Automatic annotation (TrEMBL):
One of its GO terms (biological process) is protein folding. It comes from Chishuiella changwenlii. This is Peptidyl-prolyl cis-trans isomerase. Belongs to the FKBP-type PPIase family. One of its GO terms (molecular function) is peptidyl-prolyl cis-trans isomerase activity. Residues 58-144 form the PPIase FKBP-type domain. Keywords: Isomerase, Rotamase. It comes from the Bacteria. It holds the Pfam family FKBP_C. SUPFAM superfamilies: FKBP-like. It catalyses: [protein]-peptidylproline (omega=180) = [protein]-peptidylproline (omega=0). InterPro entries: PPIase_dom_sf, PPIase_FKBP_dom, PPIase_FKBP_N.
Amino acid sequence: MGVAELLQKRKKELAEKNAAEGLAFREAFKQNENVIETPSGLLYEIITKGDGVMPVMSDTVLCHYHGTNINNEVFDSSVQRKKPAAFPLENVIKGWAEGVLLMPVGSKYRFVINPELGYKNREISKELGPQSTMIFEIDLLGIL
């Protein structure tokens, strides 16, 4: 077996492991009393509900966010950088866009994003491999 085949085999094994562990995590998370599931499988809980306007898909939003994998390893965090980030909702992963569209400005929600709404089979970083489930806490600060 050559290097390419070994790498492909490793990625497939990692994807299967991440998919199984992510499914177990999501099933457990769904049992929490305040968790809501959307038809797409996005899971969320409201930490703080703001009373501002709701964004639409064509908006650019200003957010503070903290993203981890199911093992609580941080893969991206504007909170750690101490600088909010602006995103056009049309340019983010499906789960992020779907979630933020549920939030009035001033809200903080926790989202558990399945691989189909995330990066699917792509390996993004050592913390976020193929078929990874992601957890985001997002503060919607404003609409630009």
